[in-house]
Write a structure and sequence with these properties.
Chain lengths: ~325, ~350, ~350
């Protein structure tokens, strides 16, 4: 049984045109997404801004309510539950956030931040046990516990991300949704956090949904990768394959757009024309067709399904041929 | 070297909370500190009003209506106060030369209750002789010492401000926080209610509410009711602002993190959102106190606030309605000066607080 | 350090009408921009924090230099100093000069500064949404830029020409758009159009693509390259992304903690970095199609202004640091032709 199974998830936000207007439009942030994550696995989720990856992550954690579809955690559907039952289930999955400066309450000490989960779920029964646990968590993320009484503004971005990770670990989750955890960090610090996440996974068997826009980072840390565009998944495969043999034209363009440090690689850069269209009015048929270099007539009319074109490799493109 | 070591400020060994940083910045603004000192002085004086005032607030001196201020003069090494005798005509007095009494400290005088509880009769200064009163600010139309009444009045006026803001701000923060956090229908209903309250002209609302009281309430009850009325008008404005701040704070990632941990909604509001509005709240509170003081002044001025013989700055100013009094007996305006100083001090302090809170903690 | 070779750079020209000979500087031989030993403090006296510590850099006409470094290294402040855009009360220039076409910017009066800002030197910044005024149409904003420096050309036709130059489709209708009606990539193009209005000699681009998606980033970088070739202007590209360097730059200067620690031609740097920091940085970034071994993270944190360690500022985090590294700041030396390093042990593999 998969640890997490997402089935036909949709998150549509209504756009309110006016006070008395009837016609309602929707921002289709997540539009019929399905995938699964196995225990201890890292699934990468890549896409550009507006593709819905952050909304997807938050919908799984129920910070945003899904409009339709289901999220199965160890077989149990968590989309319908509420209240104390939901709170109990929250011990199984947690989230770490992108902004190291906004993700910690500036008026709480580190000890209070990391220990909040322990209080909510009553995971420790005495003050000393709680303190001990906080120290353990800080050490697990590489922070010296001496600094437990300090405030977030005294730490650097990388250290704050560690605090955020410690906070997520407090409940001993089996799945952590990582929403762009290193994008806002200095380059020289990103590697530290990536290493930390990998180490924690090896030690504790935590699964990750690693959301990012940097394909190189995602390829490095993930076993499998999904590419999202305008609320839909357009390609999914294991990390190596998706980089070396991308089948969807968007994935190909994405890979070629990445500036490469190695000056020897001569590649033809596919520069996509135009901008990402608005998720309120996605184009008919394949959402990518207006910018696609190989679009054909039927791409404008039929939405390509996410179909299997090779073992464990699926792409949503009419023109991707199975091998 | 450890992969992660926090930055250490080599000068400060201890950690500084956002609160301490704020206080440090506040101390640098002199005018705010001055305002704060003045206020501390005023509140201390109000606390010990009975002790500092040489006379009781209701003591009538039938020989000395509208008596001008008598200041102790220096004779030898003593401060002495002469006895005045009335001149023919309206309320004019002349000092009788060589008929003086020395001013002493810690004299026995009119009885009063310190802090409203402890009966006492010792006053800070005075002559001890009722024929030689010390009227630092003269007397009013009933022969009552204006200075003493000013001090007793300060108890009422200053405390109304503090209690009032505690009430209205607590109410405003909770309601605003709930409204902003939950949004949707709750938010709409609450905000329309706030707008309703705010759209009624405050003065008329205050007077109408006051008119619903039964006559013959005790002065303490009147006092409490005034606070409640003023707070009722004021919480709505605070609620709106807090609701706006909550709307933006609610999207902050640390709030999302708390929700993801499973924190209950109420705790999220109280532990995470509201503490991050404190920097605004403190400033707004300080700048709102004058509103309460002036509100009480208006009510008492119109005769529907604190009743005689109790003193409040507002009802002392009713005498200012009469231009003949103002022309001939200008010391009756002393409460106006007191209000001016208090409001100014609060404004300076509030400005300083706002500047100090401005940078990121 | 100066690349300025004092050759004969005077031209003899015949003054029209009178026929007299006159000497004028030959700008084609002079470097467009020369930053010499720039030192900038924030605050003064005992609390002064040094943000830029002895930075020297030259840019020739038409050259593209990348200034690379992480946050807090002083690259943005250096770039802003070129037109004295750093607000002077908190900032304090305590040393060095910035010669723009031979004249020291730090000594210029306001009148002259206003002429060069947007005139000789133009800027584009990281957040295009913040650089555009939300209540004015973009056509008017571009015209404003024209009015300041080329008033005779402040016409709609010129605006349309500029919009075409930066690759905005259907510019005639776009003129009346407000910034919020455009996407991030479009906004950045408008900002570039505004910057180019006066045909500047130097374009300072401070992290122009950091806030944009990868595919849009590719578009903008391609645009900048295209413009550089067509207009022949020099570009100072400030970034923290080493990947951009390879495509865009002729030369690269790597900054760390207020100092330049490596300066070399771009391809050389990427092929064979010399300074331990540059090497560590390149090794710590996951590469596409790279191997999946543990990343060689650089331990510790980037030192913040005011907390620089003594001696070599990278020493506490450096894998090959020796005790003498913390005693004295090493000099920036030319160890190979055109390659400068601030590390005596650069040869260590």
């Amino acid at each position: 049984m998969s640890l997490l199974e997402v089935k036909n998830l949709k998150v549509h936000f209504p756009v309110k045109p006016g006070l008395f207007s009837r016609a309602r439009e929707f921002v289709k942030a997540v539009d019929d997404v399905s995938f699964a994550i196995e225990p201890g696995e890292t699934l990468g989720l890549v896409g550009e801004s507006g593709c819905g990856k952050t909304t997807l992550g938050r919908a799984i954690v129920r910070l945003v309510e899904p409009t339709a579809g289901s999220v199965l955690l160890e077989g149990e559907d968590i989309t319908g539950i509420n209240g104390s039952l939901l709170r109990a289930r929250r011990r199984k999955f947690q989230m770490i956030f992108q902004d190291p400066y906004g993700s910690l309450n500036p008026r709480m000490t580190i000890e209070q931040i990391v220990g909040e989960a322990l209080d909510i779920h009553r995971l420790t029964d005495s003050k000393s046990a709680r303190q001990k646990r906080v120290i353990e968590l800080l050490e697990a993320v590489g922070l010296d516990p001496i600094y437990a009484q300090r405030y977030p503004h005294e730490f650097s971005g990388g250290q704050r991300q560690r605090i955020g990770i410690a906070r997520a670990l407090a409940v001993e989750p089996q799945l952590i949704i990582c929403d762009e955890p290193v994008s806002a960090l200095d380059v020289s610090v990103q590697a530290q956090i990536i290493n930390l996440l990998r180490d924690l996974q090896q030690q504790r068997g935590i699964a990750y949904l690693f959301i990012a826009h940097d394909l190189a980072v995602v390829e490095y840390i993930s076993r499998r990768v999904m590419v999202m565009y305008l609320g839909k998944i357009v390609e999914t495969a294991d990390a190596k394959t998706i980089i070396r043999e991308p089948q969807h034209p968007y994935t190909q363009a994405l890979i070629s757009a990445i500036p490469e440090v190695d000056p020897e690689t001569k590649r033809k850069r596919i520069v996509l024309p135009g901008d990402v269209p608005s998720p309120i009015h996605p184009p008919p048929g394949c959402p990518f067709h207006p910018r696609c270099p190989i679009a054909e007539k039927r791409c404008k009319m039929d939405v390509p399904p996410l179909r299997e074109i090779a073992s464990e490799h699926r792409a949503a493109c009419h023109l991707a041929k199975p091998n | 070297m450890n992969e992660a070591t926090p930055i250490q400020n080599p000068a400060a060994g201890r950690t500084l909370s956002p609160w301490q940083l704020f206080r440090r910045r506040l101390k640098r603004r002199r005018i705010a500190v001055a305002g704060g000192m003045v206020l501390i002085g005023l509140y201390l004086v109000a606390l010990f009003a009975g002790f500092i005032a040489p006379h009781s607030f209701e003591r009538l001196d039938r020989d000395r209506f509208f008596h001008p201020p008598t200041w102790p003069q220096l004779a030898g090494f003593h401060l002495v106060v002469p006895r005045d005798e009335p001149l023919p005509g309206n309320f004019k007095y002349r000092a009788v030369p060589d008929d003086t009494r020395p001013v002493r400290f810690f004299v026995r005088g009119d009885k009063y209750r310190l802090f409203g509880l402890i009966p006492a009769a010792v006053h800070l200064f005075g002559t001890g002789d009722d024929n030689y009163p010390v009227y630092l600010l003269g007397t009013d139309q009933f022969g009552r010492d204006v200075f003493s009444r000013l001090l007793y009045g300060s108890q009422i006026s200053l405390s109304i401000g503090v209690i009032g803001i505690v009430l209205s701000f607590t109410l405003g923060m909770i309601i605003g926080g709930v409204s902003g956090y939950f949004g949707g229908g709750t938010d709409t209903v609450i905000m329309r209610l706030c707008e309703l309250i705010m759209s009624i002209p405050a003065l008329y609302l205050i007077i109408s509410l006051r008119a619903t009281f039964p006559p013959g309430m005790s002065s303490t009850q009147v006092y409490a009711m005034i606070i409640v009325i003023l707070s009722f008008i004021h919480w709505a404005g605070m609620a709106r602002v807090i609701r706006g701040m909550t709307l933006s704070l609610r999207e902050q990632q640390f709030v999302l993190a708390a929700r993801a941990l499973g924190q209950s909604n109420l705790k999220v509001i109280v532990r995470h959102i509201l503490p991050n509005t404190f920097s605004y709240v403190i400033v707004a509170a300080t700048l709102s106190v004058p509103y309460y003081i002036l509100g009480e002044v208006v009510l008492s001025f119109l005769g529907v606030g604190i009743q005689e013989p109790n003193a409040s700055w507002g009802n002392m100013l009713t005498a200012a309605q009469n231009t003949e009094y103002l022309r001939n007996y200008p010391w009756l305006l002393a409460p106006g000066a007191a209000i001016f100083v208090t409001v100014l001090a609060f404004n300076f302090l509030g400005d300083g607080l706002r500047d100090a809170a401005d940078t990121k903690a | 350090m100066s690349e300025f070779r004092s050759q004969k750079f005077w031209l003899r020209e015949r003054f029209p009408k009178s026929g007299f000979w006159v000497l004028t500087p030959d700008f084609s031989k002079m470097n467009l921009l020369e930053i010499k030993n720039l030192k900038l403090d924030f605050g003064s006296g005992a609390d002064a924090l040094r943000a830029v510590d002895g930075v020297s850099l030259t840019i020739g006409a038409g050259e593209t230099i990348c200034l690379v470094g992480e946050s807090g290294c002083g690259k943005t402040v250096t770039g802003l100093s070129i037109a004295q855009l750093v607000p002077a009360p908190p900032a304090n220039y305590v040393g060095g000069e910035i010669l723009l076409n031979g004249r020291d910017v730090l000594k210029m009066a306001n009148e002259e500064l206003r002429k060069i800002r947007g005139g000789v030197v133009s800027y584009i910044f990281q957040e295009p949404g913040a650089a555009l005024n939300p209540v004015f149409r973009i056509g008017n904003q571009i015209k404003e830029s024209l009015k300041l420096h080329k008033p005779e050309k402040a016409t709609n036709e010129e605006v349309i020409r500029l919009l075409k130059l930066v690759g905005i489709p259907a510019p005639e209708s776009r003129i009346r758009n407000y910034p919020f009606e455009m996407s991030g990539g479009m906004q950045q193009r408008v900002v570039i159009a505004m910057a180019l209005a006066s045909e500047p000699k130097l374009l300072v681009a401070d992290e122009p693509t950091t806030a944009l998606d990868v595919t849009i980033q590719a578009q903008i970088l391609e645009l900048l390259l295209d413009l550089k070739q067509r207009l022949g202007m020099a570009i100072l590209l400030i970034t923290h992304n080493l990947g951009i360097v390879g495509d865009m730059a002729d030369r690269v200067a790597v900054m760390y903690a207020g100092q330049i620690i490596e300066l070399s031609p771009a391809k050389e740097l990427l092929r064979r970095p010399l300074h331990p920091y540059t090497k560590a940085l390149m090794n710590s970034v996951p590469k596409l199609r790279g191997d999946a071994g543990r990343l060689a993270a650089i331990p510790g944190n980037v030192p913040r202004i005011g907390n620089f360690p003594p001696g070599c500022r990278f020493a506490p985090r450096c894998p090959i640091a020796k005790p003498e590294c913390s005693k004295e700041i090493p000099e920036l030396l030319e160890v190979e032709p055109g390659r400068w390093v601030r590390c005596p042990f650069w040869k260590t593999p």
